[in-house]
Amino acid sequence: MHMAAGKKSIPLSSRSEVVAALMAMLEALDKQFPPGQSGFTLGDTCAHYGAKIAEMEGLSRAMWGLFPLLASGETVPLSEKYFAALKMGTDPQSPGYWGETGPYDQRLVEMAAWGLGLALLQEKGLAGFSPRERDNLHRWLNQISDAQMPDSNWNYFAILVQLGFKRAGLPWDQQAIEQRFALMEAYYLGDGWYSDGPGRPKDYYISMAFHFYGLIYATLNGEDDPERAATLRERSRQFAADFIWMSAAGGESMPFGRSLTYRFAMVAFWSAVAFSGLEGFSHGVVKGLILRHLRWWLGQPIFDRDGILTLGFAYPNLAMCEDYNSPGSPYWALKVFLMLALPEEHDFWRAKEQPLPELSGKRVIPHAQQILVHSKTSRHVYMLTSGQLELNNYVNTEAKYTKFAYSSAFGFTIERGRYGIKHAACDSMLLLSEGDNYYRGRRECEQVEVRDDHIFSRWSPWQDVHVSTWLIPCGDWHVRVHRLETARALESVEGGFAVKKAPHQSIGTRGCRVAAENGVSLIYDLSPTHPRQPESVVTPPNSSIMFAECATIPLLQQAFAPGTHWLACAVQANPDAQDITEAVPEFRLEDDRLCVKAANENNTITIML
């Protein structure tokens, strides 16, 4: 597994090897970190908060890896420059001063890392600080106590700062903690699930933020706040039983939602589980989840020639990034190294790594409006979903939240333009056009219902066009049924999963199969009337988040006159061609019900209309 061109392989099976992987990343950063500075520059791209704040962001995010390592008792010479930067950055008389914060300020986000450091290291973390430097640090961080912030996971940043103050012997405010917890309680959904603010998505921020910070709080402040700590731990335990389904056997996690450039923060939750000793899964299982994930990532081309984490997902890709992604933003990935706060002799590190537990069949998660399905060996995981949407409308928000299905192996494609189907990211979408080559798909849902055997949604791409959609897991296949009610003539395109560029093959007259280097993708039309024509489209390079090459999407297309039309299809993909289930599910439309049956099985899924 190579972290960058020319870097030595790190097998990642022991604590010392995990430390070596972290140190390789920190040493690469150190070469970009001039002495006597309170930040560093990692690139020339820009986020909405400007270059100076981005410089302190990158520096602060490195501390998510450094602080746990220091907390375990290890000496890390690189850390001296960071503490010097902290003194400069919080000194109003210094030219490197990080400045006064305003409402919704990015610097409030980065304060959380320093709060964690104070909480982990306690008074020894301030051993090299003069009284004035301590006062500067406290005053600068304390700006967050009553700061105006998004009503979201940001509330935890203030809690971590106050927790750090308390444990490091600095003045702290219990009321600030209570107020922030009260705000977040308003968007607790039940069964371990939050939304990231009122009406906001249920994506990786629930794992890498809410439960990650909650387990830190419960572990470091449990004796003083036992009731809340018990609640946070129980919620995380419930969440873990769902969240493990997001992991595939090879270490991949399901790409979904925003902030995917934080990469291995996807499993930071499991590192917090190890740190907190949360009951539910054994140390060996948790260790395997984290280490396989890190091995998978370190096998991807995610570092530049200097060993710096790039913006993107499985390769450098600015096109899929959000407005708030600066060159230093990807280093939130280092949150996964919280487990390094546990010393070598801890039971977690002594445990034998265990494979992913057997997760057969499907997992219905009503609070997240998702159904997750594992293949027999969990080599491939797909997710059906409806109803989530990021209200801030960041770039490619539809691609990240509103597709019908997502895949651990094939991810998804992003829009590369407004005109033409090859640019429109039609994978796992039903796209509609008025014949002008501009396509609209599902965005906001007017209605969503999650059942044990399907997800229903209703959406309207135009005021006089309404679509009712049923997503039905059917083993390795999933079936999609749409009732299209339109007052205008439309052309339609519906895509399967995107694989690397390859020619398509017809499956009879109604199906399309693409066998590519990285797997096989199929779509088969089951429409009761107006059969759709199978075809494929090749998307531009850098449109898939999983690979840089052009992608091929198998699809179905048909034109519809005004009126009511029923569309149905079966979709499947798998990284292993031999694991493809060739027999297509059966679909029947009756007067008052939809009937779906997997081939060679007796059980029929019946959905009343």
TrEMBL record:
Coiled-coil spans in chain: none
Domain DUF2264: residue ranges: 14-356, 364-579
Domain of life (superkingdom): Bacteria
Bilayer-crossing regions: none
UniProt protein name: DUF2264 domain-containing protein
Lineage summary: Bacteria, Pseudomonadati, Pseudomonadota, Gammaproteobacteria, Enterobacterales
